[in-house]
Amino acid sequence: MASSSPSRARTLALAIVLFLVASASARPSQQDEPVTMVRFRRWMEQHGRSYPTVDEELRRFEVYRRNVERIEATNRAGGLGYTLGENQFTDLTSERLSRR
Question: Domains in the chain, start-ordered, CATH in brackets?
Fold first, then answer.
């Protein structure tokens, strides 16, 4: 178990670097308020989330990132009479959420 931890850390570090490189090459409109792995990790801590594998964590990060972008775009558009926000379900796809 201890030997897989350095491997997991290296894989996660590589994924973060790849994400940062991809973010740097994103269109400027996508860089206004980037959803970062740091923000996702804070959300994970706040909601007691952990994932069994690095691959699953990266999949959930991507879902979280897309959901936060949708939340922020909806709030910027305004006119709803309410504001959307993150919650304990922000790492779920709409399909998975509807099955709950």
Answer: 4-98 (1.10.287.2250)
Following DSSP, what letter does each residue of 15-77 receive, concatenated? HHHHHHHHHHTS-GGGGSS---HHHHHHHHHHTT---SSHHHHHHHHHHHHHHHHHHHHHHHH
Kindly report, residue by residue over 15-55, the tens digit of the pLDDT: 676 666 555 554 444 444 567 899 999 999 999 999 999 99
Sequence-distant (≥ 6) Cβ neighbours of residue 8 within 8 angstroms = 54
pLDDT greater than 90 at residue 10: no
CA atoms within 13 A on the CB side of 86: 18
Phi, psi of 32 (to 5 degrees): -55, -55
